Every structure is written in structure tokens, then in C-alpha cells.
Amino acid sequence: MLRYQILPVTPFAQNCCLLWDDATGEAVFTDPGGEVERLLGEAARRELRVGAIWLTHAHIDHAGAAGELAQRLDVPIVGPHRDDQFWIDMLPQQSQMFGFPPAQAFTPTRWLVDGDRLELGELEFEVRHCPGHTPGHVVFHHAPARRCWVGDVLFAGSIGRTDFPRGNHQQLIDSIVTRLWPMGDDTVFIPGHGPESSFGAERRSNPYVGGT
Question: Helix (H, G, I), strand (E, B), or coil: what is residue 103?
Fold first, then answer.
């Protein structure tokens, strides 16, 4: 059975998540933007075996601690899509620009593309490429639990910014409508910031994509 804990990190209150299969104790971190010691402590407290880091995209608040955490745990970095390599290369510059601890650039162990599958213990996730906020943004969907980790594509009552380099507003809307909505109105999503919501609730009331 899928279990997860949201662990907001960095001054941006970014929703890093610890996901695990409670049948096997195998775990992953999604989007570790910072606070490495806290993340390591949480996994140790739950006696979980962290086997990978999954990234939705490479903005500093989502990927700033990925390189260090991967080294400390000796695990692969999986994702995002290779179109975000330029953001990864800019992590040291991003950390200075936003006042974050020094961040190291890296090359993911595995790039992801639309339709890829990821395994966590006995659980399977589908990867969907959802560009717009960044060109290489991906999301992680676990259909049996009706849960999706969407990074900064969609929020409760809002959508991701598209004013960063290579952001594209229409592409973001298209990603939401064609990639997220088909997962079903009852699917709960975990955004990169703020509270969880459901795709159905956002289709009804989100001022940016309501009624789509």
C-alpha cells in the first residue's frame, strides 16, 4: 500500500514528499529542495530504505538538495525530462540568486519521458510529461491510490508560473487539460506548494482552468 508524508522544505515551503511502499519498506524522495538532515532523519525515523530521488522539475526549491542527498544516500536521481538540463546546470546560480545554500549541478541517472513507468517496491507509477512551467516538467501518477504528484503544474486555486525562461502559458494549460484531467476528477494531487486538492475540484472552481 502506498504511503506518503509531505515535508515542506526551504523558505518557499516546497512540498518535498517521502513516498513508501509499506509492504516492503522501500521509499523515494520527490523534489528535495533543501534541509537534507531533516529529510534523512525522517526516513531513518520510519526505518525506510530510500532507493531513489524523483524530480518533477529542476527549479532550486525542488532540486536544490538533490545532488547532495543522492550522494549521502548513494541512490540515483530519476527525472525530470531532459529539457530541464539547463535548469540543472543553473542550480549553483539559482542558489545564489534566491539565497539558498550552495547547490550542485548534476546529471540525472535517468531522464524521463511521457509514458515511462517507475517502480517503488511493489507499486507502479506512470510518468506524464507536462511542460509549461518548465519545458522538462513531469508528474508521477499512482492510479490505484488515485494520487498524482504534480510539482508546480497545478495548485489548489491556481496554476504554475510561466514567466521563467522557457515557460509557456498555453503549453501549461494544454498539459493540465490533456494530461491531468484524464486521470479522473476523484484523483487527489499533491502540488509543489500549498494544500492537496482534487482534479475535479479544480475543474469546477480554479479561476485559470475551471470549466476546461
Answer: coil
Distances in whole angstroms, Cα of residue 17 to Cα of each of 89, 172, 173:
23, 23, 25
Phi–psi pair at 45, nearest 5 degrees:
-60, -35
Residues 110/161, Cβ–Cβ less than 8 Å: no
Q: How far apart are the first and last CA of the chain?
A: 32
Provide the whole-model pTM: 0.98
- Give the residue from 150, 174, 173, 158 showing the smallest Cα distance to 207: 158
For cell 526505518, the residue is 47
pLDDT digits 0-9 by tens, 60-69: 999 999 999 9
Q: Smallest Cα–Cα separation from 28: which of 9, 62, 64, 4?
A: 4
Helices (DSSP H) in 6-118: which residue ranges?
36-45, 60-63, 66-73, 85-89, 91-98
Check residue 25 and give its pLDDT: 98
Q: Which triple of cell numbers denotes residue 104?
A: 550542485
- Write down the residue that cell numbers 511542460 correspond to: 131
Q: Which are the contacts of 119, defined by CB distance < 8 A and separation ≥ 6?
A: 125
Q: What is the pLDDT of residues 126-147, one digit of tens each?
A: 999 999 999 999 999 999 999 9
Distance between CA atoms of residues 80 and 100, nearest Å? 21
C-alpha to C-alpha distance for 123 and 193, rounded to whole angstroms: 25
Sign of CA dihedral 11, 189, 88, 29: positive
With 0-12 CB in 10 A as exposed, 13-18 as middle and 19+ as buried, what is 30?
Answer: buried
